[in-house]
Write a structure and sequence with these properties.
heterodimer, A: 214 residues, Rossmann fold, 6-stranded mixed sheet, 7 helices, B: 133 residues, two-stranded antiparallel ribbon
Chain lengths: 214, 133
Amino acid sequence: MGINIFKGWGKKFFSNLFKTKENVKLGFYGPPNAGKTSLANKICQDWLGEDIGVVSKIPHETRHVQFKEKVTLERNGKKIEFKLIDTPGIATKIDFEDFLGFGMKKKEAQSRAKEATQGIIESIKWLDDMDAVVVVLDSAENPYSQVNITIIGNLAARKIPVLVVANKIDLKKSDIEKIRAAFPDYEVVGISVKSGEGIDDFYEHIFKLVKKAK
Amino acid sequence: MAKKEDKSSKDLTIHFMPYSEIAKLDSLNRIKKLIGLILEGKIIILQGRLTAEEESKMIETTMTLIGNIRGFQGVEISTLSGEEDQSMFDKVRHNIARILVGEQDAITLIGPASVVKDIKRDPKKIELMLKRK
């Protein structure tokens, strides 16, 4: 027990000793189809001129953690640099039959479901390694889902700074106030990756978030 | 006739679980106990809640079971705690109570996704939707 505490303290001490603001790990978390990869692509396009991953209307398109090293944002003469980590959407259930509706054959759907379950496990395991997290939610969906609560609860327990992004504010059903009411302890930024609305404000918040990272 | 009644009663079982049933278990055994009941096709109404870490551990465990246990598609879970409307004073009081007696001040619904279609939660209510057979 005592040795474990010492080991944990030692690991943290040395990782903090060599960690600079340049190697902050900024994770993108959320339920499937909230727009995590779309937002990560937007950032990578704006600042690196390239994409990080493929997006699709089919849930669980991202089934592996994806990275982009050294993403540098500049604003008012200030710079921040971080490693962008896009994670697979977290869900509590996966039924391969749901994928059949998207024109997939049974084998392909089963294989996608299997990969999706592994992606979720990978996402959860990565929680421990994050320095700051952007939780991306679909503002047209009910925010009180247990997945959202579990993700944010885990980040709070690990004292990881969080920014909640309410994506898809261009949709009629979008309700950003509902998200604010669900997570009153967190800053919520409304954006539409599709239309570009709110992106400037989002970058402003990313600056603050990365600075809060240990 | 009596046999028929037995069969239908197996179709859907709701298991009410007082907090005392999990209070003395460690996280691993709490998850094992809950998943064991879920694999029997039962819907659990738990007094209290799991911690965020236990919830994520439960998601991880269920993900490893999907594809390995026939017909298992994961779980539906929702917790109603009433924490959202609390003032700062209430939050402090709630946290002290949590340290003393555990996470009893909540209700958690957990069920197999093959039985529970959806659990809709709005701030103050939970609606459980079952799959029609």
